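TICKET: design request
STATUS: open
ATTACHED STRUCTURE:
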């Protein structure tokens, strides 16, 4: 082999190596420059003022509302655990803790707190169940049936709920007084008469409220059930009530809360201490001139709030469930 051929082979063997070295060097130079370019661009973080104008003020408003709602509850709970018997010593929250006020609630025979508690549960539960049942039947009739006076009835329900039941106190007193002469079980001093008064005042607004919810249920469900031979009663009890369970829970909860916390009408109708409710009975602890005991009153108020909390927790899944949860077959 000649010297010229040997030199050409060496030159050819060195060319790919040189090209590879150039490519590798280019990649290294590019790779080295990319991080520098990225590092040179600073990350923009949201400023405090921008965050506050967009979402921060909402957190501030939420904190203020929580404090505004929770502080009275904590104050009443602290007063119920304060054995001094006045609200002045409750300014320092939970400085003194004692259950003497809760014990004294059930020791005074002239103020039977236990009987008031039972009366409240009985009246509230029966009134809520009757309100839901009667209101649901009336709403179903207005929503599914067409009869003479339907529009006038709906308009009357809307107008009746504009006037509070408080305006009819005198009429209720005279009416129950006259009924008591004929039917003593429905007159003044009877819990049954009080429940009927509550039902008369709650059916208007609750019926109109449930009527709007009943209209959201497709009527094709009723038509399909009628083809299978179902009557209105079967459709109402087996199909519709399951679909409208959320509104029934809401109406029952609102009726129970309104009944347990109502004072004006209950104080007029119920005259016997053994038949009074918690709202009327608790007022006796702070209505006397020389023996006001706000600590015992606070303890009674704390216990009176427990049934409402229990009912709300029991009905919470129906309230949140919605219409689709009840329509699953």
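STATUS: resolved
RESOLUTION: sequence designed for all positions
ATTACHED SEQUENCE:
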């Amino acid at each position: 082999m000649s010297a010229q051929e040997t030199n050409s082979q060496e030159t050819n063997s060195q060319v790919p190596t040189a090209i590879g070295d150039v490519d590798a060097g280019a990649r290294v130079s590019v790779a080295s420059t990319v991080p520098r370019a990225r590092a040179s661009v600073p990350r923009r973080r949201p400023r405090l003022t921008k965050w506050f104008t967009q979402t921060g003020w909402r957190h501030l408003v939420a904190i203020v509302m929580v404090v505004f709602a929770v502080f009275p509850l904590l104050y009443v709970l602290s007063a119920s655990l304060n054995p001094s018997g006045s609200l002045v010593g409750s300014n320092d929250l939970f400085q003194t803790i004692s259950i003497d006020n809760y014990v004294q609630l059930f020791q005074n025979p002239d103020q039977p707190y236990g009987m008031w508690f039972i009366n409240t549960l009985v009246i509230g539960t029966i009134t809520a169940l009757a309100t839901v049942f009667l209101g649901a039947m009336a709403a179903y009739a207005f929503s599914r049936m067409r009869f003479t006076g339907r529009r006038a009835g709906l308009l009357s329900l809307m107008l009746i709920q504009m006037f509070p039941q408080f305006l009819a106190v005198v009429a209720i007193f005279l009416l129950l007084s006259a009924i008591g002469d004929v039917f003593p079980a429905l007159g003044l001093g009877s819990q049954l008469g009080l429940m009927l008064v509550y039902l008369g005042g709650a059916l208007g607004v609750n019926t109109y409220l449930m009527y709007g919810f009943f209209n959201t249920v497709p009527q094709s469900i009723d038509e399909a059930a009628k083809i299978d031979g179902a009557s209105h009663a079967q459709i109402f009890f087996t199909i519709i009530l399951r679909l409208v369970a959320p509104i029934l829970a809401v109406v029952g909860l609102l009726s129970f809360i309104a009944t347990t916390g109502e004072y004006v009408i209950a104080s007029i109708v119920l005259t016997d201490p053994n038949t009074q409710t918690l709202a009327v009975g608790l007022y006796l602890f702070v209505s006397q001139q020389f023996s006001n005991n706000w600590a015992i009153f606070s303890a009674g108020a704390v216990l009176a709030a427990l049934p409402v909390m229990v009912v709300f927790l029991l009905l919470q899944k129906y309230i949140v469930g919605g219409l689709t949860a009840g329509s699953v077959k």
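CLOSING REMARK: The mean pLDDT is 78. Residues 87 and 187 are 39 Å apart (CA to CA).
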